[in-house]
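pasting Endonuclease domain-containing protein for the record, 321 residues
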Amino acid sequence: MPPVVLTHAATAPHRVGDLVAAVLRDMEDLAVRRFPQWLPGAEDIAGPGGAGVRAVRVLAVRLAAGDGHFGPFLADLAEAALRGRPCTARFSAEVRAAGLGRVIGTGSTIAVASCGELSQGEADVLSAACQWLERWTGLRVLRAPSAPAVTAAALPAPAPPSAPPRASDGPVPQDRLAPPDRGGPWEPRKGRPHHASPAEQRMESVLRRCEWAAGREWNQVYASHPLSNPIRVDLLWREARLIVEIDDDSHLRQETFESDRRRDVRLARDGFVVLRFTSRAVLTDAQAVAREIAAFVNEGVGNGTVGSADLRDDRPHGRGR
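structre below
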């Protein structure tokens, strides 16, 4: 699975245990939403009826035996995901953190953002919770810039600086890019991928053959209201309230990473889910990225979430962010 950034908005943290518990609940919710991607063999199990629960528990125990997971926790998490609900907390916080860190995946990040200014005591609690989470999840945990209270969102993470995209990687075999759906082409509703971005061009070559992607809009300008600073977004599904960003290696710089998080918080406050993928992830396996996007598009359209934000296509296409 592509790595993710899980952004949690911390509201007046007074105790380390309470903040840790809140982040673990967000991690469990993300694991449930991404099921069955993290459990090979569970793709064809339709639901908890019949032998479904027993089947996913057996698969989870087998995965744990060969991959260093704790079997009982992973089996509980798989059952909870099949039933579409968060996992019960019958295990210690340490066990849950370690298991969820493995499920969410190597290279992922937890970003904990404070909602407004914190007292010194609250700042100490937040720092201690971040240190605890980093130790037990095995993931990178950072304190994001202060932000208004928002719902935690799952964002695919930038690749680590040790593995930037390379121009010498060469073309990706075409059989790696087989689209999830057949037929089409389904053209974008508005806009186009940037002509100087191979990753955007590659993503479009897959999406144009996916019927679920027909409502996409490329390189649109968003503003919360007429007086706010506009944001150019790479890829938008208006009805699903979904924005997809495709980041090159310039987004690995610390100042750019923090700026991206502020943008994401602003968009989340306005009701959008923001997914971020690296250019390398798209060029390596665009089909896997498309499947990740499809899960959010279908969920958003099914919920009937339609926004009223100002999204315009009246500026020259470019990468000026």
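Residues 147-179, 302-321 have pLDDT under 50 and may be disordered.
Residues 158-312 form one domain.
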